[in-house]
Amino acid sequence: MIKCILFDMGGVILTAKIEQVLERVAAAFNVPLEELMQIRKDHKTELWDGKMKVKDIVKRLKKKYSIKKSVPKLMAIWEKTYLESTYKNEAVCLIAKKLMKNYEVGLISNLWDFHAELNKKRKVFDGFNPCILSTAVGMHKPQKEIFELAIKQAKVNGEECVFIDDRNEYFFIAQSLGMKTIEFGGAEQLLKDLKKMGVEVE
Protein backbone atom coordinates (compact mmCIF):
# COMPACT_ATOMS: atom_id res chain seq x y z
CA MET A 1 0.00 0.00 0.00
CA ILE A 2 1.38 3.39 -1.00
CA LYS A 3 1.71 5.85 1.89
CA CYS A 4 4.30 8.34 0.62
CA ILE A 5 4.86 10.22 -2.65
CA LEU A 6 8.29 11.81 -3.16
CA PHE A 7 8.74 14.46 -5.85
CA ASP A 8 11.86 15.82 -7.51
CA MET A 9 11.82 19.61 -7.84
CA GLY A 10 13.64 20.91 -10.96
CA GLY A 11 11.77 19.81 -14.07
CA VAL A 12 8.83 18.51 -12.02
CA ILE A 13 7.62 20.95 -9.33
CA LEU A 14 9.53 23.75 -11.07
CA THR A 15 9.38 23.98 -14.84
CA ALA A 16 12.98 24.93 -15.67
CA LYS A 17 16.09 22.79 -15.23
CA ILE A 18 19.51 24.01 -14.13
CA GLU A 19 20.82 24.04 -17.71
CA GLN A 20 18.24 26.65 -18.70
CA VAL A 21 19.03 28.76 -15.65
CA LEU A 22 22.76 28.75 -16.40
CA GLU A 23 22.14 29.72 -20.00
CA ARG A 24 20.33 32.85 -18.86
CA VAL A 25 22.86 33.63 -16.13
CA ALA A 26 25.69 33.43 -18.67
CA ALA A 27 23.85 35.90 -20.90
CA ALA A 28 23.15 38.25 -17.97
CA PHE A 29 26.82 38.16 -16.86
CA ASN A 30 28.10 38.33 -20.45
CA VAL A 31 30.33 35.28 -19.94
CA PRO A 32 30.58 32.08 -22.04
CA LEU A 33 27.94 29.48 -21.20
CA GLU A 34 30.67 26.85 -21.62
CA GLU A 35 32.44 28.32 -18.59
CA LEU A 36 29.41 27.88 -16.34
CA MET A 37 28.70 24.41 -17.68
CA GLN A 38 32.32 23.39 -17.04
CA ILE A 39 32.18 24.68 -13.46
CA ARG A 40 28.97 22.72 -12.98
CA LYS A 41 30.57 19.59 -14.42
CA ASP A 42 33.80 19.89 -12.41
CA HIS A 43 32.10 20.72 -9.09
CA LYS A 44 28.75 18.97 -9.45
CA THR A 45 28.75 17.12 -6.14
CA GLU A 46 30.29 20.00 -4.16
CA LEU A 47 27.53 22.30 -5.42
CA TRP A 48 24.83 19.76 -4.63
CA ASP A 49 26.20 19.02 -1.17
CA GLY A 50 26.62 22.69 -0.19
CA LYS A 51 30.43 22.52 -0.05
CA MET A 52 30.67 25.01 -2.92
CA LYS A 53 28.37 28.04 -3.02
CA VAL A 54 26.86 30.05 -5.86
CA LYS A 55 28.79 33.01 -4.43
CA ASP A 56 32.02 31.08 -5.09
CA ILE A 57 31.06 30.79 -8.77
CA VAL A 58 30.24 34.50 -8.94
CA LYS A 59 33.60 35.44 -7.41
CA ARG A 60 35.43 33.20 -9.86
CA LEU A 61 33.62 34.67 -12.86
CA LYS A 62 34.18 38.24 -11.64
CA LYS A 63 37.92 37.65 -11.33
CA LYS A 64 38.42 35.67 -14.55
CA TYR A 65 36.40 38.01 -16.77
CA SER A 66 37.22 41.27 -14.94
CA ILE A 67 33.54 42.00 -14.36
CA LYS A 68 33.21 45.51 -12.90
CA LYS A 69 29.99 44.92 -10.95
CA SER A 70 30.34 44.05 -7.25
CA VAL A 71 29.70 40.54 -5.93
CA PRO A 72 26.44 41.63 -4.19
CA LYS A 73 25.25 43.21 -7.45
CA LEU A 74 26.09 40.05 -9.39
CA MET A 75 24.29 37.92 -6.79
CA ALA A 76 21.23 40.16 -7.22
CA ILE A 77 21.41 39.63 -10.99
CA TRP A 78 21.69 35.85 -10.45
CA GLU A 79 18.66 35.97 -8.13
CA LYS A 80 16.56 37.95 -10.61
CA THR A 81 17.59 35.65 -13.47
CA TYR A 82 16.84 32.49 -11.48
CA LEU A 83 13.42 33.70 -10.35
CA GLU A 84 12.50 34.79 -13.88
CA SER A 85 13.71 31.46 -15.32
CA THR A 86 11.93 29.12 -12.92
CA TYR A 87 8.32 28.99 -11.86
CA LYS A 88 5.95 26.46 -10.34
CA ASN A 89 4.28 23.90 -12.54
CA GLU A 90 0.83 24.76 -11.20
CA ALA A 91 -0.78 21.57 -12.52
CA VAL A 92 1.77 19.40 -10.69
CA CYS A 93 1.53 21.51 -7.53
CA LEU A 94 -2.24 20.99 -7.57
CA ILE A 95 -1.74 17.21 -7.82
CA ALA A 96 0.72 17.36 -4.91
CA LYS A 97 -1.72 19.40 -2.83
CA LYS A 98 -4.52 16.90 -3.46
CA LEU A 99 -2.22 14.02 -2.54
CA MET A 100 -1.36 15.71 0.77
CA LYS A 101 -4.89 14.96 2.00
CA ASN A 102 -4.21 11.21 2.14
CA TYR A 103 -0.45 10.68 1.80
CA GLU A 104 2.91 11.87 3.06
CA VAL A 105 4.13 14.07 0.20
CA GLY A 106 7.79 15.03 0.16
CA LEU A 107 10.65 16.37 -1.93
CA ILE A 108 14.09 14.99 -2.74
CA SER A 109 16.07 17.55 -4.70
CA ASN A 110 19.67 18.09 -5.79
CA LEU A 111 19.81 21.84 -5.30
CA TRP A 112 22.45 24.56 -5.10
CA ASP A 113 22.58 26.61 -1.88
CA PHE A 114 21.41 29.96 -3.28
CA HIS A 115 18.61 28.36 -5.26
CA ALA A 116 17.43 26.60 -2.09
CA GLU A 117 17.31 29.96 -0.28
CA LEU A 118 15.34 31.59 -3.09
CA ASN A 119 12.82 28.75 -3.29
CA LYS A 120 12.36 28.78 0.48
CA LYS A 121 11.61 32.53 0.31
CA ARG A 122 8.96 32.04 -2.35
CA LYS A 123 7.46 29.13 -0.38
CA VAL A 124 8.04 26.41 -2.98
CA PHE A 125 8.74 23.89 -0.21
CA ASP A 126 5.64 24.66 1.85
CA GLY A 127 3.55 21.58 2.60
CA PHE A 128 6.20 19.07 1.53
CA ASN A 129 7.26 16.74 4.32
CA PRO A 130 9.86 15.34 4.29
CA CYS A 131 11.71 18.08 2.40
CA ILE A 132 15.16 16.68 1.61
CA LEU A 133 17.44 19.23 -0.07
CA SER A 134 20.92 18.02 -1.00
CA THR A 135 22.60 21.29 -0.02
CA ALA A 136 21.04 21.09 3.46
CA VAL A 137 21.79 17.43 4.20
CA GLY A 138 25.21 17.14 2.49
CA MET A 139 24.24 14.23 0.25
CA HIS A 140 22.60 13.92 -3.15
CA LYS A 141 20.82 11.68 -5.63
CA PRO A 142 21.68 8.98 -6.57
CA GLN A 143 23.35 8.31 -3.20
CA LYS A 144 21.44 5.64 -1.33
CA GLU A 145 21.63 7.59 1.93
CA ILE A 146 19.46 10.47 0.71
CA PHE A 147 16.64 8.06 -0.18
CA GLU A 148 17.05 6.26 3.15
CA LEU A 149 16.79 9.62 4.94
CA ALA A 150 13.55 10.42 3.11
CA ILE A 151 12.07 7.03 4.04
CA LYS A 152 13.12 7.49 7.67
CA GLN A 153 11.67 11.00 7.93
CA ALA A 154 8.42 9.91 6.27
CA LYS A 155 8.22 6.99 8.73
CA VAL A 156 7.42 4.48 6.01
CA ASN A 157 9.05 1.52 4.27
CA GLY A 158 10.58 1.79 0.81
CA GLU A 159 7.82 -0.41 -0.60
CA GLU A 160 5.28 2.18 0.54
CA CYS A 161 6.88 5.00 -1.49
CA VAL A 162 6.55 6.34 -5.02
CA PHE A 163 9.43 8.48 -6.32
CA ILE A 164 8.78 10.90 -9.21
CA ASP A 165 11.67 12.41 -11.20
CA ASP A 166 12.28 13.63 -14.73
CA ARG A 167 15.74 11.99 -14.71
CA ASN A 168 15.43 8.21 -14.71
CA GLU A 169 19.14 7.68 -13.97
CA TYR A 170 18.27 8.03 -10.27
CA PHE A 171 15.67 5.26 -10.30
CA PHE A 172 17.94 2.24 -9.79
CA ILE A 173 18.80 3.27 -6.23
CA ALA A 174 15.20 4.12 -5.33
CA GLN A 175 14.07 0.79 -6.76
CA SER A 176 16.76 -1.07 -4.81
CA LEU A 177 15.06 0.21 -1.65
CA GLY A 178 11.69 -1.09 -2.85
CA MET A 179 10.32 2.21 -4.12
CA LYS A 180 8.08 2.44 -7.15
CA THR A 181 9.22 5.06 -9.67
CA ILE A 182 7.57 7.35 -12.20
CA GLU A 183 9.48 9.13 -14.94
CA PHE A 184 7.79 12.53 -15.13
CA GLY A 185 6.34 13.35 -18.54
CA GLY A 186 3.79 16.02 -17.68
CA ALA A 187 0.92 16.45 -15.22
CA GLU A 188 -1.62 14.48 -17.26
CA GLN A 189 0.69 11.49 -17.61
CA LEU A 190 1.59 11.70 -13.92
CA LEU A 191 -2.07 11.39 -12.94
CA LYS A 192 -2.43 8.28 -15.12
CA ASP A 193 0.73 6.70 -13.72
CA LEU A 194 -0.29 7.37 -10.11
CA LYS A 195 -3.75 5.91 -10.65
CA LYS A 196 -2.21 2.77 -12.21
CA MET A 197 -0.35 2.30 -8.92
CA GLY A 198 -3.57 2.61 -6.95
CA VAL A 199 -2.80 6.10 -5.67
CA GLU A 200 -5.94 8.15 -5.09
CA VAL A 201 -5.80 11.74 -6.30
CA GLU A 202 -8.88 13.56 -5.00
Shape: elongated
Strand portion, in percent? 5-15%
CATH superfamily of the largest domain: HAD superfamily/HAD-like
> CATH architecture of the largest domain, please?
3-Layer(aba) Sandwich
Q: What is Rg?
A: 18 Å
In CATH terms, what is the fold-level topology of the largest domain?
Answer: Rossmann fold
* SSE order, one letter for each helix or strand: EHHHHHHEHEHHEHEH
Tell me how many strands there are: 5
Widest sheet: strand order?
A: 3-2-1-4-5
> Which CATH class of the largest domain applies here?
Alpha Beta
Compute the number of helices. Answer: 11
Q: Structurally, how many domains make up the residues? A: 2
Q: Overall pLDDT, averaged?
A: 96
Structural classification = alpha/beta
Low-confidence stretches: none
* Portion in helices: 40-55%
Key descriptive features of the protein:
single chain, 202 residues, alpha/beta, Rossmann fold, 5-stranded parallel sheet
Task: Characterize the structure shown.
Helix 1 (18-29) crosses helix 2 (33-42) and helix 1 (18-29) crosses helix 5 (71-85). This protein folds into two domains: 4-15 and 89-196, Rossmann fold (3-Layer(aba) Sandwich); 18-85. The chain has helices at 18-29, 33-42, 44-48, 54-64, 71-85, 90-99, 113-121, 134-137, 144-154, 171-176, 187-196; strands at 4-7, 104-109, 131-133, 161-165, 180-183. It is of the alpha/beta class and 202 residues long. The chain has a five-stranded parallel β-sheet, with helices on both faces. The mean pLDDT is 96. Helix 10 links the parallel strand 4 and strand 5. The longest helix is centred in the middle third of the chain and has 15 residues, at 71-85. The two termini are 17 Å apart. The chain is elongated and about 60 Å long. Helix content is 51%, strand content 11%.
